[in-house]
Amino acid sequence: MVFLLSDHIKDFLSYCRQKGHSQNTIAAYRNSLEKFMAYAHAQQVTRAEGVTRPLLRGYAEMVSEAMSPGGAHARLRPLKTFFNWLEADEVIDKSPMRRIPLPKLPRKILPAISPQEVQALLGVARQSRHPLRDSALVGVLYDTGLRVSELCGLALTDIQPGGRLEVREAKGGRSRIVPISRTALKLISRYVSQERPATSMLHLFLLDAETPVNRDSVKQLLGRLCKSADIASYSPHAFRRGFAVNFLRNSGDVFTLQRILGHSSLEMTNRYAVLQVDDLKNVHIRASPLTHSKRGERGI
């Protein structure tokens, strides 16, 4: 029986669903792979075994010319994952993407909300229609670095003794334990005991007695709070980046940060934790070997 490239793509997407990848990730994979398949068919290639390195180079060049580096990287990265999967599944002997470089991404300092701006948001949240819920939501986002999907998936039973959250709705289906401060826990406790609707629903954050918050409602809520606080409009991801940057500013280490954020590699963590020049200077002042050696000499 002959398996076409389209058959392998269907199997791969099914594998991704079984692994617990999010719908957005699967949709991005499908879009990328179908566009490559259309290109391959135009070159009379319909089977995975017929995909060669020159074919992929030609496709990568075409994509890189038509798209920004970030867009081209996002379009080509799923191909590496797909062909690695085919190699691991012994459909092909070796991935033809091994020596196809992905476009280099510019290292940008992405928006990250500051501690002062978070305090401003907490101030206006106290005047909102749901002051305790909104304060708790802002506090948890900034205190834990959760993704918005993880925040929306939190249940009452995920709050564990000892200042920990169990994140079950994590990206890639990987659950993890995330520390949470007493300050954030107090915000949650006030919301649950005084304002959260009486309902059998287990979701922590609710819009009403029957509706948990979702990605869009969280974005809209943060947009309203930012407007009321007269600050730049921040997405939920800006809170995640703000947590990462300030975790390092406050002497946290990148390995612990990786575990808290739920990243599979330090490379991904480093994209979030891009420090400003002043941050680097402050770290250098604290850690300079020459400065420490002079202190040692004075102590002799």
Summed up, what is this model?
The model has no long low-confidence stretch (mean pLDDT 88).
Structural class: mainly alpha
What does the radius of gyration come to?
A: 24 Å
The description of the largest β-sheet is: 3 strands, antiparallel
The tally of strands reads 5
| Approximate strand percentage | 5-15%
Spatial gap, N to C terminus = 80 Å
Query: What is the overall shape?
Result: elongated
Helix count equals 14
Level of helix content? 55-70%
Order of helices and strands, N to C? HHHHHHHEEEHEEHHHHHH
Could you name the ranges where pLDDT drops below 50 across 5 or more consecutive residues? none
Trace the largest sheet across and list its strands: 1-2-3
Mean pLDDT: 88
If you had to describe this structure to a student in words, what would you say it looks like?
The protein is mainly α. Helix content is 59%, strand content 5%. The chain is built from 14 helices and five strands. The chain has helices at residues 5-18, 23-42, 53-66, 69-88, 115-125, 131-144, 148-153, 182-194, 215-229, 236-249, 254-261, 266-272, 277-287, 289-299, and strands spanning 159-160, 164-167, 176-179, 206-208, 211-212. Strands 1-2-3 form a three-stranded antiparallel beta sheet. A hairpin with a 2-residue loop joins strand 4 and strand 5. The N and C termini lie far apart (80 Å). The relative contact order is 0.09. The mean pLDDT is 88.
